Amino acid sequence: MSSSQEALAHLSLVVGSYDVRGLVGAELTAPLVRALGAAFADEVATPGGQAAEIAIGQDMRESSAEFAEAFADGAEARGASIVMLGLCSTDETYFVSGRDVVPAVMITASHNPAEYNGLKFSRAGAVSMSADTGLSAVRDRAAGYLADGIEPVASPGSRRHADVLPAYAAHLRSLVDLTPLSPLRVVVDAGNGMAGLTVPAVLGDAAGLAALPIEVIPLYFELDGTFPHRAPNPMPAGSLLDLQQAVIAHGADLGLAFDGDADRCFVIDEAGEVVDPSAVAAIVARRLIARDRAADPAAEIVVLLNLVTSRRLVETIEAAGAVPVVTKVGHSLIKEDMRETGAVFGGEHSGHYYFRDFFGADNGLLAALHVLAELGLAERGGQPLALSALAAEVAPYAMSGEINLEVDDVPGAYASIVEAYSGDADFDEFDGLTVTGLTSTTEPFWWFNVRPSNTEPVLRLNVEAATAAEMVRVRDAVLTLLDA
User: Fold this and answer.
1) pLDDT tens, 241-274?
2) Which are the catalytic amino acids?
3) Which residue from 191, 28, 165, 171 is spatially nearest to 86, judged by alpha carbons?
4) CA distances, 472 to each of 23, 101, 438 (Å)
5) Inter-CA distances, 306 with 127, 354, 432, 473, 474, Å
6) Taking CA 321 as the corner, what is the angle to CA 318 and CA 326, rounded to the nearest 5 degrees?
7) I want to staple 74 with a disulfide (CB 3.0 to 4.6 A). Which of 38, 299, 400, 401 is the partner?
8) Is position 377 within any domain?
9) Could you give the CA distance from residue 264 to residue 278 in angstroms, rounded to a whole number?
10) What region holds the Alpha-D-phosphohexomutase alpha/beta/alpha domain (predicted)?
11) Do residues 69 and 6 lie in contact, with contact meaning Cβ atoms separated by under 8 Å?
12) 388-397 pLDDT per residue, tens
């Protein structure tokens, strides 16, 4: 079997609901990426057939440079002009796509292990591309190119290189008022990912910006796609132990951790405890709601949240005078909802935070800037307020965190849950299966959601309840039901 035939066999396997992910060599190869480049160039061409300019960024994974070149070769063959961004974070590609109104692709597997790689696509203006909005068409065109070869156009595109980090850093700084910021000590765990490049530019003076009153203590800033110190996903329990210990050892005000492509951010308080992403979203949401309310007291302000964030986030949004809108999980889906609703902000349980100010796209560093600004301004009785106290004001109820389960028969699992909880709960299949207990005013509320992952072969379980004991009871009952 030729390399093109092998790539064709793997195409449907690696193209998912809103991006491309696969094992390097075994599933994702240069011929396949080249075909995707040609197909993407066709998809984003004008209705009249005029080729677009396409920005291509890459993370520090060992295969990313090769795949960036392969994608560029395929897109150029179909007439696209290429802007090679080189090493950058995923949100830098959103910045270029939004600022310059050009399509973009990021070569990254985000939080997946080192043996994976992938691609994230944006239409011009940082508009997301999911299976329903063009990614399936890209897959189908790529299949044709793998089967028949890529036919070059009469005038292939050109290629140039661009360093956008200084402009990106300046843009983020312009979105958050940091001028009255109190001095802060921050430990940052880049996890050998792209935050090792972007954090010194945004929080420091590496991009030529004025120094902030922030002392950054770096952990694992060396770019290394083998991820020698921790996995690129900061979310699983125990992933941030080094950061938690460093925050305490250095007497820091807080800690920040980023995933491999640096678009997700996790926060640690001064006591070394993880601040739940729902609490981070609540802190940022209150700031942006207050800003928009001051600008237009009569405006309807919308904030998005996915369905597995805490009920406390809904209550916080409503208390601040805005409208919470629940979305499905997934960055492309939420970006579509950001544009349709005009939401000022969106938060996910996974540490993705979306901003109208940032073309409706997600940006972990921008969320971090808002947390820093809020903490640097917060006082009680004339004394600085610790992050733990600030987060406690919007802390979630008792949550299980995301539990990943290997379940072969998802429909059978759903049927078992419905049978077990019929008469005791309401059911919703908006995104997976959400089960909400029919509790009285004297009983602690509870809910849980099970849904298939869009990026991994697992079923994800999230549970929340009014009390820790109730959460444990519900969690263990569901795990027993699923034989996990």
Assistant:
1) 999 999 999 999 999 999 999 999 999 999 999 9
2) 110
3) 165
4) 36, 48, 17
5) 19, 11, 12, 24, 21
6) 40
7) 38
8) no
9) 13
10) 15-133, 167-272, 277-376
11) no
12) 999 999 999 9
407 lies in the same domain as 340: no
Segment 153-160 shows an average pLDDT of 93
CATH number of the domain encompassing residue 83: 3.40.120.10
User: Structure tokens of 428?
Assistant: 């919703």
Burial (Cβ within 10 Å: 0-12, 13-18, ≥19) of residue 303: buried
Q: Report pLDDT digits (tens) over 15-68.
A: 988 899 999 999 999 999 999 999 999 999 988 888 889 999 999 999 999 999
What number is the average pLDDT over the span 438-455? 91
Q: What percent of the chain has pLDDT over 90?
A: 85
Q: What's the pTM?
A: 0.94
Q: What is the pLDDT of residues 361-378, one digit of tens each?
A: 999 999 999 999 999 987
**Which residues constitute the domain of residue 313?**
277-362
Strands 353-355 and 345-347, by their bridges, are antiparallel
Count of domains in the chain? 4
Q: Is residue 122 part of a domain?
A: yes
Report the alpha-carbon distance of residue 173 to residue 370 in Å, rounded.
Answer: 10
| 119 plus 27 within the same structural domain | yes
